[in-house]
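Record passed on underneath.
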Amino acid sequence: MYDAERYDAVIIGAGMSGLAAGIRLAHFGKRVCILERHTTIGGLNSFYRLGGRNYDVGLHAVTNFTPKGTKRGPLARLLRQLRMAWEDLELSPQLESEIAFPQARLRFSNDFGLLESEVGRVFPDQRGAFARLVGRLLDYDDLDRPEAGASARGIVEEEIGDPLLVEMLFCPLMYYGSAREEDMEFGQFSVMFKSVFQEGFARPRAGVRAILKLLTRRYKELGGELRLRAGVRRIVGREGEAAGVELENGDFVGALKVISSAGWPETMRLCGEELSPPEAAPVGQLSFIESISILDRQPRELGYEKTIVFFNDHPKFEWRRPSGEISDVRSGVICSPNNFAYAE
């Protein structure tokens, strides 16, 4: 059953991270196979078609957008690593987004100067404090520093004296990147601040399927193999190392290395000698729901011209697991795929 390895690497999950990992390995001549349980690619950022319409799942916008020719930043680094051109992603920048609280609103775009001017307009006494915070974040680029795991709220409140501004800054960043109740690690706050505010949002007109199909095409061009409807039952070990995976249909796929993009709880379950039922796996406490609404006209015709609105209906932004079965509707995110700066 456990014969010589067939692949240099097996990757569990055909989401964006799994596909990107496959591209990198295949580019360097490795024999790679990506295994996906479902009938299509995408993972948490997938898509489906219903009633003649295409629907994205998960992807509202791509963060870390930078214009063509930018040499630094995550997007430029990603393109270099995947050997892709800026034009391949067909990204269009946001028009303008907003943080909306009852007491104040802050507009921001991919031009960081807009947020700086908005903070000065709405919180004039915090202009210098905000500049100091930005400087501190720009100087911070090492997630291995001791303060990376420190409370972001504690550090931000050292600089920003107005509690409302603190809450308004945390609202978008926690929605996009915090699995910790009421707070973030400072390293994560730094990453998300740069991603959302200093670089910004963009989106391909065709939605997430455009990115996924691009990644899949590139992966296959490099000789990578993709198997759909190939769920993994368990990761098989031999002499203390992974030897491959056993599929849900009983087949064995051997590999020198096994890379999982299925998430930590699921990956740990796959590593166990005794398989636990899914409900027994440890999971995070935070959750939220997503609904998709279809309009019969352009959003701007209804007076809605923002790309994304992060709203909260009281001064304190609360980020915690709901105490009951109904989600907390006091805050949320409204995104309009129509309100990006598409070419036409």
Notes: The radius of gyration is 22 Å. The mean pLDDT is 90. The longest strand covers residues 252-260.
